[in-house]
Amino acid sequence: MTTRRRWTLAAVLFLFALAVRLWHINWGLPGVYEEGFALERAWGFWNRGGAGFDWNPHWFNYPTLYSYMQFAVQWLVRTAGPYTDAEAFRAAFTESRAGLVLPGRILTAFLGALSAPLVFLAAFRFGSPAGAVLAGSIVAVHSVHVEKSRFLEVDVPTAFFLAVAFYCISRFSGSGRRLPILLAAAAVGLAASTKYPAAVFLLNVLAAPWVATGAGSRHRVSLTLLLGVVAALAFLAGTPYALLDFPTFLEGLQFESRHVQVGHLGGEGAGIAGAARAFADGYGPLLSVLLVAACAWLIARRRREAALLLPGLLLVFALLAMSNLQPAHYALPALPAAAIAIGVFYGAFVSRIPRFTGYALFVILLLWPVSAVKDRAALLAETDSRTAAARWIEEKIAPGRIVLTEAHGPQLLAWEGANGTRPRFRVLTMPLFPVEPNRADRFYDPAFVRSAELMVTVNTVRDRYEAEPARFPRQLAIYGELDAGWIPLHAFPASGLGSTIRLYGRAAGGTADSAAIRFAPEARTDPEFGQFARNVTQYLLDRGRNDEALRLAEALAAFAPESAENRALHATILSSTEPDRALAILRRSHDQNPNDAAIAMNLAVARFQTGDYAAGIAVLESLVGRGVEDAEIHGNLANAYLMTGNEDAALRHFRRFLALDPTHPRAAEIQEQVRVLSSSR
Predict the structure, then answer these.
(1) Is the pLDDT of residue 512 over 60?
(2) Which whole-number Å values give the CA distances from 604 to 196, 528, 601, 638, 646, in the listed order?
(3) For helices 86-94 and 65-80, what crossing angle results, to 10°?
(4) Contact at 8 Å (CB) between 446 and 486?
């Protein structure tokens, strides 16, 4: 095959693979239903409210290279978009990142499509043209790879860097030149900086000097050590805070280790059989058999490709077999090596059969993955059940209602005033903990559920709990209460990638009963539980359900009296009926947590309500003096100074308020205050 024809085929493979991946790439939008960790980490790099950028993700369950790549996409959107300044860009995507999802997905699709020609070119150097075309085509139509190319997830970018690595290995294997194998080591380091398990493919790179060249042992040892160093440096280039914030990095690694051991609730692994299913999904039965045959043939024939292709591939399979996490996309890092291995094996035998038979075999081998790609695309074309549920709620339920939803439910806009074209609700999501599933039961508390006006259950969650009733009695008790005492409003059958969703409305007059509130004892030291309970309480206040809010706040303060936040919330609610008692509670809370802005704000407001402006101003000024920058603090200070006749100080704090939050709902009112005060100077 001529060089021109080879590169033409590579270009055709890329364009075909890209077209397949762009098909329905806008699925689900404007809802964002994928695990967009990289998107959120990238959004955090903008460091809103601080100086410059914050490149530390402060979260290392995944390494950070893909997050930095998504930040580059966001920067391009910011630069090319109609945003007058950084604040306009922030405001555009604060409520929903949906507008950043499509360009982020296109990046993933591009990397996924580029993997196909890279594998084709690598397989061409290892074997025959026919085998190379099959290898590239497998990547182009591998159904799991195609689907994940439409997601903001790390698996496809990881496979891309490994495809680069195998292309470089193939170049080194043919020439023996040092640069390609150094680039291969760097590519593996970048792959590991995208998803940690990709590091196992360093074995393939380290094997290359020993099987692909005739150099002496000393040269091989020195090159092997150099390759390890290059891979490590490349990893750190993509995840620099692995060193700069090592304790947090270690914490993320430990979490992922527990996650792999425990698995997902209701989705525990099944050993070798489960690993085999994970690998087979995407290839189909015929290509799966061919992969097993290719591995056996490469090892039996002692072909050098066995050392260059199989170590990482077999390790991925072994890790999956030992893990309790066995989803199909976990096998994607092995796709480049597996496709090349199949191509080498296929190419060795296809030349022995008639050409027409070879063409027919090629088509037959790809029928299953092509059909699977088509079926999955049709699924993405459906209206997702989460989208349908969100639309129904927005059309049928009055804005501002308290909505409690299980994870993977409809995405509703949270209440922040009445602005905007879509209705807003007071939304709380019941947490789902993959590593500590029993921790979720403390959130299924009757006091919370009965506070809601709309309850949303999701079968992907509900089915998991109902499968083990003895393990999750709290969840089942809540489901029983919903089915027996609430009004079933609507059920949305599973569609798209969404599960079955059921909506329940609280019966008329069905407010929280007078039974004593007893929280799960183990929730006492759970900060997420405390925040969840305080949010429910605040939502009850916002809805004017003050008696229920006070009852819940009293129970929470008694349950965890060491929490200053609980006492402060209790005092805030008491302030309208028992101001002296409320003030005493707030003073104790502030003494315990003098740097807590929320507690200080509540104490200051309580002081203002009693007419003690000097004491309230002193509390807030102490926060400002310690560097706490918050628009509401400056707004309260400005109003207090106005009440005491200090217009210069009021003007200074009003201006700071506008600088910190120029899009605040009260911004126009504050600007008018600034104009009036300035004109009187």
Answers:
(1) no
(2) 48, 26, 5, 13, 17
(3) 110
(4) no
